[in-house]
Each structure stands twice: as C-alpha cells, then as structure tokens.
Amino acid sequence: MLVDFQLIEKARNGDDAAFNQVVTAYRKRILGTIARLIGRPEDVEDVGQEVFLRLYYSLDQLRAPEVFEPWLYRLTVNAAYDYLRKQKRRQESRMADLSEIQVMMADAVAGAKFDSDRQQADSIREFVHALLSTVSEEDRILLTLKEVEGRSLKELEEIYGVKENALKVRLFRARQRVLKAYEESVQSGIADRRKGSASGGS
Amino acid sequence: MSDTNHALDHLLARYRAVTPDPDPGAGFMPALWQRIEARRSFAWKLRIYARGLVSVAAAVCLAVTLFQFSPLGAAADPFYNQTYLETLRNDSSPETLAYAAVVPAEPGQ
After folding, report:
1. ipTM tops the 0.85 cut
2. What pTM was estimated for this model as a whole?
3. Cβ-nearest to A53 among B14, B23, B32
4. Domains of chain A
C-alpha cells in the first residue's frame, strides 16, 4: 500500500484533500499500468483521469480500506477495457501493420543495430502491441497484468473476483495465441530479410 | 517451443523496461478536478430536474384527487350521483332487461 488506511477512510468520507493525496500517491503507477495496457502514450492521462474520476464517485462503495488496491486496479482494468473497445477498429487496422514491423522485429531478435535506443524501444513497443492485438481486449489486459506488470495470480483473483483456476486457463490460452503470432511473425520476418538480402545481393 | 517461450518472456521483459511509468503532466490534477466538478454539476442539475418533476407529478395527483372529490368533479358524471335504488331501478327497466334477453320488451309478444 502506498498510503495508509486512515487516508483512504478520510477520502471515502468525502475529504477532498485526502483524495488528492491518494491520487498523488498512485497516479504514476496507475499511468504506467495504463500505458502498458493501452499502448497509446497520448491517451494515457485521459484514461488515468477517467480511472480516478470513477474512483472518486465509487469510493463510498468500497467495502474496506484493505481492499483499496485491488479495487483501484479493477477500475483501471475497466477503464482500459472501455478504451480498447472504443479503439477496436483502429487496432484491427494496426494488425494489418504486423507484417511491416515483422522485419523490424526480426532485426530486434537478431540483435541488429538500430539507429538509436529510442528506435529500438519504439519497435519493441509496436511489436508487442501488434502481438497483443491478436487476442481479445479482455485477454490482452489479463496477459499484460500477469506477464508485463508481474501481478500474481492471487492479486489477479482479487482484481477480477474470479477463481484462480479459471484465470490460469484463460491466461494459458491467451499466451498460446500470442506465442503462435510471435512465432509466425518472427519466421515471416526472417524470411523477408533473407529475401531482401538475396535480391540485394543479385 | 521452449525457446520461443523464453524469447517471448524476454520480449515482454524488454517491453516492460522500455515502457516505464510516465510522469504525470502538470495539468493532470486540475483536469481531473475539472472532470469531477463537471460530473458533480451534471448530477446536481439532474437532481434538481428530478425534484421538479416529482413536485409537478405530486401536484397533478393532488389536483386530480381534489377534482374527483369535489362536487364539480362529481357533477360531471351523473352515474356517480345516483343512489343505489336509482341505479337498480334504471338497470331493471324493461328496456334494459329486454336488452339482456331476460324478459320480452313488450308483454303481448
């Protein structure tokens, strides 16, 4: 916990200054999670504000301050899901770009030199977002929370209010799908590179 | 498959590393409070409209009730002014009974 229970209790009782302190304590972490969940840096603050707005108007429904963090993460997941659903069309078009970055990623996998670290970071981000867009929004969020954010199954159980076994099954299936897309894209990227180097050499 | 699994884990770890928690902008908190206030004022307006609507509905109910119990309302419909005997007499008139096929309209037929 980044804040003590008393502060959450105060915020729950309508103390705006306490709410401000809670937001200040959690905003960076929540914005980071949102950034990795939605993959659109320009919309991170907007979604983050939506999370804290929902928190402000739902704090009175919080059972106990002890469950504050899973509650906040559930709000984050819901806001990210709503955002991703709205952006679905754009994501579908981004899937079409997968082939374009396959070559770039093959370079990344092969350890090829990039012009800059930033370019390499951008290509990794693009590639991961493209891979994650091969699964549903729900699975993408779940997989990101587990594999990227490092949330334990116990924490996910609290966030989702779903049994651990059900989460395991869902995570396994989602990972298999992403793994398959990863294999295909790397294979295809390597093939493209070979084709490119062969035509360049002739 | 195991290699690919490791490669994917490695990729996701790199993704985590290249996507650090961003620093919130200076306008984050003011914009958040603006949104909170906007929703609060919307909820407040909605409450005012709802209260107004309830008041109007209550006034209409009261007016209809008063009209029903007032002599003006009762006089409007003669049905409600008749006594039990008057109603019974009217309903038992030969015309009505003939209509109900209980007795012939004219005794001679």
Report:
1. no
2. 0.72
3. B32
4. 1-86 (1.10.1740.10), 88-202 (1.10.10.10)
